[in-house]
Amino acid sequence: MQPYYRGMARIRLLPPELANKIAAGEVVERPSSVVKELVENALDAGASRIDVALVDAGKTLIRVADDGCGMDAQDLALAFEAHATSKLEHEQDLFNVLTCGFRGEALASIQSVSRASITTRTRAAPAALCLESAGGRAGEIRECAGGFGTVVEVRDLFFNVPARRRWLKGDSTEFSHVVEWLTALAAANPEVGFTLRHGERKALEVPPNQAQPERLSALFADRFTDGMLEAHEHETYARLDAYLSPPTVHRPNSKGLLLFVNRRLVKDRSLVQAALLAYREFLPPGRYPVAVLFVHVPTDSVDVNVHPAKTEVRLLEQNRVFSLIKAALTEKLLRSGVLPSLKPAFAPQARPDSEFEPTHGLFDDEAQARARAAEHRWTEARSVLEAAIGPSVSRLELRPPRVEHDVPRLEPGPQSSAQTDTQHRTPGTEPPPDTGLLHNARGLFQVADTFLVVETPDGMVIIDQHAYHERILYWQLEHRISSQAPERQRLLVPAPLTLSVGARALAAAHRDALREFGFELAESGDGFALTAVPKYSVSGRHGEVVQEILEELAGGGTAATPEALRKSMVEMVACKAAIKAGDTLEPRHILDLLKLGETVPHTFSCPHGRPTTYRLSFHDLEKLFHRR
Predict the structure, then answer these.
(1) What CA–CA distance (Å, rounded) separates 105 from 109?
(2) Residues 95, 300: contact at Cβ < 8 Å?
(3) What does the pLDDT look like over 312-329, one tens digit per residue?
(4) pLDDT at position 197, please?
(5) Confidence of residue 218 (pLDDT cuts 50, 70, 90)
(6) Using 50, 70 and 90 to split pLDDT, how confident is the model at 308?
(7) Cα 322–chain centre separation
(8) Whole-angstrom Cα distance, residue 494 to residue 531?
(9) Mean pLDDT for the stretch of residues 93-106
(10) What pLDDT, in 10s, does the model give residues 163-186?
(11) Domain 220-334: top CATH class
(12) What stretch(es) of the chain map to CATH 3.30.230.10?
């Protein structure tokens, strides 16, 4: 076998044909790469309409026609030359790029691995001009028939590089890549009309001069069927225009998240991470948001010359853009007020009456006794509810389960979030749909000491009491503790803490931070004892809760700084101080919990992204039982 390294050889210039083929390997990966480069050229030419036609998913023919400015003979003569461009003139222009393309590599690379032709005509020209090329060898310019603008045809892609052609996938796969790129370009340019034909089939058509939300709805109908949320934020350096599906719409991968910087579709892990962090509390684990983000920054503060395919950029103020995206999306999601709907996944098939099993136990003596006891409790509960909500709620019923503690709370500040939202709400707009559950309630009870069920005029709302309370505490701890310390209660007998060496060191270093959350520690021998706890904590195991928090923080290697400790504490205290599954609640405590929920921006997901609340409509319930 011949060795890989053969020693030093003489240095020589590569033939232009070979150099272009190597460059084509960076720029032209598959038919979609060609479509992207040609459509970007059309956009730079000022086109208002761009038509793309394919045969065999672009392997046999790619045709891109535009109504842009066209080229004269002098420009056309250089069109197929490497590094020939009208988009840069001076070196400093490279750091102030206003166009999609700028390197002058695209056409040279494309024509080196295909049979290409250009037909173009300016508004002032009496006739069109044509230029053909095969495998990198261009012919002579000639006059021909043609309208204003430019038509580029690329035939037999990779005909002279069979090894590259063998790597292409099937037509359906290659066509999907074309659709993905053209859709992205159409999304970023709503003022331009686009069509895409594959053979005789029209796969995409959008008219020119659409508003941005209208264009996105036309292109991504499946992503915005449940509504579109918009977030528009401006600061001195950057502007963000974000279009989001509700948090109830999510995907198993990140393909539904598109990021544009100055209309250029880019892959930037940092900025994508900012969006993912904003959604972290709203989505289940392993799910990704659906969003289209447009970031606009000064052209002289972004370096687009990072990747041959121009899919990566480098920002001068990356951290500012990161913060802008995360803050804007988080705020919008918090105030979306979207309540997930519980849709039955299937309807049971009807069976003959003879196939139904008898329902034993529904009418035995024990069951009747339980029913009579429940009716008595409901009668008592109605007076509690009417006193809290008003006598107009005549059908309101609630099952009062057993309980040994109240629902704790942080006292609201001078003005609750709900009051603030009401004062700043635009006249005529409706409040978020997950508020006012008690106002519209017709029945209310607890199930399995874990779930709360609220009957509404059009269905029912099912609430996970732990996740719901955890969300409330998380928001209160995150947004109110800094301005209003939680009320504490002193323990009659200090509770000694059994801590590891790492947890003791953490407790010693961050006692002030712990006090901020309402937990006071005092030195006790070689360790610490808990002397005061916050009133919002429902657990009777206060010492164990603090021990768990400190051990988890120490074991996870977090909380190296007070800021890191505070962030971890917010999440952990909210979880450990919240009502647990299995805690029974009396009517007044359930009312307190739901009233408390109406003081925070949203309660439909816990800080970990698990859902807290679902709505099941009577319409869907009737379909489940074949009533519809």
Answers:
(1) 6
(2) yes
(3) 677 778 888 898 999 899
(4) 96
(5) very high
(6) low
(7) 14
(8) 5
(9) 50
(10) 888 889 999 999 999 999 999 999
(11) alpha beta
(12) 220-334
pTM metric for this prediction = 0.61
For CATH 3.30.1370.100, the residue range(s) in the chain are 488-534+539-577
Is-contact 4 90, C-beta < 8 A? no
CATH class of the domain defined by 365-421+431-472+582-624:
alpha beta
Question: Half-sphere exposure of 326 toward its Cβ, with a 13 Å CA cutoff?
Answer: 15
**Residue 592 Rama label (left phi>0; alpha psi -120 to 50; beta):** alpha
Query: Dihedral, CA atoms, 542, 543, 549, 552, nearest 10 degrees?
Result: -140
The candidate with the shortest Cα–Cα distance to 113, out of 28, 45, 5, is 28
* Distance, CA of 53 to CA of 199 (rounded, Å): 7
Single-letter residue type at 271:
L
Q: What is the pLDDT of residue 540?
A: 64
Q: Angle at the Cα of 428 (from 426 to 430), degrees rounded to 5?
A: 85
Check: CATH 3.40.50.2300 for 488-534+539-577?
no
- Please, what sign has the CA dihedral across residues 538, 543, 545, 549? positive
**Residue 482, Cβ neighbours under 10 Å: how many?**
10
State which amino acid sits at residue 126.
P
DSSP codes, 23-76: HHHHH-SSHHHHHHHHHHHHHHTT-SEEEEEEEGGGTSEEEEEE-S----HHHH
Residue 116's φ and ψ, nearest 5 degrees, are: -115, 155
Provide the sign of the torsion angle of the four alpha carbons 271, 276, 278, 279, taken in this order. positive
Q: Tokens 């695209």 identify what position?
A: 106
Distances (CA, A) of 435 to 279, 398, 442, 451, 599: 21, 19, 15, 18, 9
pLDDT value of residue 578? 85
**pLDDT for the residue 348:** 45
Compute the distance between CA of residue 34 and CA of residue 158 in angstroms, rounded to an integer. 12
Region(s) of the chain under CATH 3.30.1540.20: 365-421+431-472+582-624
Domain with CATH 3.30.565.10 in the chain: 16-204
Integer Cα distance of 309 and 28 in angstroms:
8
Give the model confidence (pLDDT) of 470-522 as tens digits: 988 888 888 766 667 778 888 888 888 888 888 888 888 878 878 888 889 99
For the domain spanning 16-204, the CATH number is 3.30.565.10
